[in-house]
Each structure stands twice: as C-alpha cells, then as structure tokens.
Amino acid sequence: MKSTVCVLGAGRMGSSIVRTLLAGGHPVQVWNRTRQKCAPLVELGATLAASVEDGVRAADVVIVNVLDHTASDALLKQDVVAATLRGKTVVQLTSGSPRLARDEAHWVEQQGGSYLDGAIMATPDFIGKPDTSLLYSGRPEVYERHKDLLLALGGNTQFVGEAPGQASALDTALLTQMWGGLFGALQGMAVAAAEGLDLRAFESHFTAFKPVVDAALYDVIGRTHARRFAGDDETLASLGAHYGAFQHLLEACEERGLNAAIPDAMDTLFRRALATGSAEDDFASLAPLLH
Ligand code: NAD
C-alpha cells in the first residue's frame, strides 16, 4: 500500500513534489500558507489540509518544502503540531545548513518521530525524472523504509550518510562549485565586453573550451583527494604558469576599471601559496589554504 504523504509548502518546488507523488499513486495532503496555491493540486487529486496539524495527523510521511528553516520551524514547532509527530517520518526538503539538519533531527526524534534530511539537486521541472538526484542523510533504516517513495521524486536518489547534516553539506559543497563557475562566467564576460567582443563569441568559444575546463576540474578533485600537490609529469599547468596567465586578468580589470573583487580574492590565495616557493607545484597545492 502506498504511504500517505503530507506536503507542507506548495511553492514552485512543493507543487512539483505534490504533482509527482499524485502521479505515482500516493494519497497526498497539501498545506500552504496561502491556500490558493493548493487549488491546482486539489484539482489533480490532492486533499487540502485544513491546518498543518490536520495534514500531519492524516499522513505517514511529512515532506516539508518551504522557503527556509525559519518558516519550517514556525510550522512544525507549534505545540499542536509537535504533539502529532509521534510515529511519523519528517522528510525535510527545505534547503538548510548541516547545523540546521542536526538540530532538527534531534528535535523531531525528541517528539517521537523519525527524520531524514534531504537536498534537492534539481529544479522543479526535473522532479520525478529518472536521472534526477536528491541526496538524503540520517538514519539508514528510515531511508530504507521510505526508499520507494523517495525514489519517486528522482530516480538517482542517494543516501549519503548517517550524520543528519551530510546531505546539506554535500548540497553546499556542490553549489559552491556551481557559484565558482557562474561568478567566473560573469567576470569573463565583463573582460570580453570591455574589449569590445560580442558576447556570442564568448558563448561559442566557451563550448569548445569547456571539455578542457572539465578535465582540469576532475584533475584537481582527484589530485586533492590523493593529496598529489607536488608538480609531476601529469601536472596540466604549474601554479607558476597559472599565475602568469592570471596576471592578464588583473591587468584587464585595472586598465578597464572592472570590478576586481573576485580576482583579488584569487590573487590573495595565489600569492600566499607562491610565497612558500611552490611555483612548480600543481594547482591542487592551493587546496590546504582553504581549510
Ligand atoms: P517558492 O518561493 O516558490 O516557495 C516557497 C514556499 O514557502 C511557498 O509555499 C510559501 O508559501 C512558503 N513560505 C514562505 N515563508 C513561509 C512562512 N513563514 N510560513 C509558511 N510558509 C512559508 O520557493 P521554491 O523554489 O519552491 O523553494 C522551496 C525550497 O526548496 C527552498 O528551501 C529552496 O531552497 C528549495 N529548493 C528549490 C529549488 C528550485 O529550483 N526552486 C531547488 C532546490 C531546492
């Protein structure tokens, strides 16, 4: 028998979760601060919960997907709601930090419930697809108990660790890499535009350069994991070679008056490493400076 799910939050992501669960045959209770957002979901077969506690009481599993943990706390940590959590599983899909996940796991278990912390590595349009990845951490037996339900939200769903904060930590780690790329693209386009280049040139040449960048990324990940920081025959470019090319970015910012906040931060790290005489080392030798 399919478990009954209560979804708290019918924003972009919450609505997609509800639609996917309904399509998978799960009975769904839905609650949202503004009720109108639930109307299209009720039309699809969800039951509108009159209150948070009513929705939780009627469900086996409570999926929370609201803006942030402050909003989530305001819903779950009301006495009337806390009193209904005994025997329920709370799956927290609101983005949060490892500390928030740890605190919440502790609190839910104090109420007699089970807790899983989740990170959604996708946008709402990807929910329910076979390759979509959601990461979970918490008690493995709770994950196993609800695995079928969780897999309905993304076929590449993974359990990443027993410490409740590990899914959020991996989420933050992967997003950090994404922000590095996004900020890098913005800085690169500023340099290109300052020299009168059409940004379509940046776009098309990026496509050709990207496999090289991806290979360098995997290389730095592998070397850092293996702590192979000294330059060797397989080093793609030494720290000194990187820093030589990096001077052209600093010069372009200076000459064209571009915002250099990001390059300046990178320059600080390069200089700190090079001050120890590591010009021949691999780029991965910067890794210890970030700990
Ligand atoms: P959204 O703005 O579309 O929806 C936010 C929801 O939070 C709404 O249902 C709103 O009613 C509710 N809410 C806000 N403040 C509240 C409060 N004080 N009390 C009760 N409810 C409150 O946002 P979204 O894109 O659906 O994101 C929801 C969560 O999912 C966030 O934590 C977000 O980081 C996470 N997430 C989103 C995406 C994405 O691509 N949209 C991807 C991964 C994770």
UniProtKB/TrEMBL annotation:
InterPro entries named among the record's database cross-references: 6PGD_dom2 (IPR013328), 6PGDH_NADP-bd (IPR006115), HIBADH-related (IPR015815), HIBADH-related_NP60_sf (IPR051265), NAD(P)-bd_dom_sf (IPR036291), RedAm-like_C (IPR048666)
Record-annotated 6-phosphogluconate dehydrogenase NADP-binding domain positions: 5-161
Record-linked Gene3D superfamilies: N-(1-d-carboxylethyl)-l-norvaline Dehydrogenase, domain 2, NAD(P)-binding Rossmann-like Domain
GO terms of molecular function: NADP binding; oxidoreductase activity
Pfam family, one: RedAm-like_C
UniProt domain NADPH-dependent reductive aminase-like C-terminal: residue ranges: 164-290
Membrane-spanning intervals of the chain: none
Swiss-Prot/TrEMBL keywords: Oxidoreductase
Oxidoreductase as UniProt keyword: yes
SUPFAM superfamilies, per the entry: NAD(P)-binding Rossmann-fold domains
Domain of life: Bacteria
PANTHER family named among the record's database cross-references: CYTOKINE-LIKE NUCLEAR FACTOR N-PAC, OXIDOREDUCTASE GLYR1-RELATED
The protein, known as: NAD(P)-dependent oxidoreductase
